[in-house]
Amino acid sequence: MFNLSLIEHKLRLPPHLLSLPLQDAVKSVLEDLFLDKVIANLGLCVSVYDIRDIKGGIIFPGDGASTYTVKFRLLLFRPFVGEIITAKLKEADANGLRLSLGFFDDIYVPVHLLPNPSRFEPDPHNGYQPMWTWEFDGEKLPIDETDEIRFRVHGVNYPSIPLEQPESSKPFAPMVITGSLDYDGLGPMSWWQQAEEVDEEAA
Question: Fewer CB atoms inside 10 Å of the end CB: C or N, the chain?
């Protein structure tokens, strides 16, 4: 789920940071540039892990800042296809589920990757708010925000930034994870805890 990537970057160090130790000043600028940002095909930056090399310190004519070439490692959130991750339900609609890890919310489980058969219908135990349920062995098993949900990573995409975006559209997400619940052991943890309890009683 998390990976280290070695990156080389030309960095402009503003004059107001020159009073700091060079390592601290460079790390401060790197965190402003990369922390909580998505790097295409690499993932979401969680932290600047370490700085391997700093070279340069060139001051170009007419510029009070110095420029360095920095090699450093970023800790990135980048799940692989097939990985099993546990998340929480953020929202649900007729198109499927949206899950959250707390620090990352753009995880979507479309209808065709929900367990079959699943239904999106009003729940009398939840003020008749629509929710997804899986029909299994004559019982309706709910998918709600009270449970941890185990999903399999089906795909990771890095959409291109749109030139125009309608006001009614969702905010642009630079990284989108598609998840699947359509496999044994996936879905709300309570489903499988109940199944284990039934097996124990039967034994």
Answer: C
Q: Which residues is 7 bridged to in the sheet?
A: 72
- SS3 of residue 37 by DSSP: coil
Give CA 173 to chain center in angstroms: 10
Reported pTM: 0.85
**Band of residue 194 on the pLDDT scale cut at 50, 70, 90:** low
Provide φ and ψ at 7, rounded to 5°. Answer: -130, 145
β strands within 24-147, DSSP E: 38-39, 43-58, 66-77, 84-93, 96-100, 107-110, 118-123, 129-136, 139-143
Chain mean pLDDT for the chain: 89
Share in percent of the chain as helix, strand, coil (round to 5): 20, 50, 35
Helix (H) or strand (E) holding 33: helix 22-34
Q: Is the peptide bond between 117 and the residue preceding it cis, with omega within 30 degrees of 0? A: yes
Element (H, E) at 191: helix 189-202
pLDDT digits (tens, 9 = 90+) for 106-131: 999 999 999 999 999 887 676 668 89
For 50-55, what is the mean pLDDT? 96
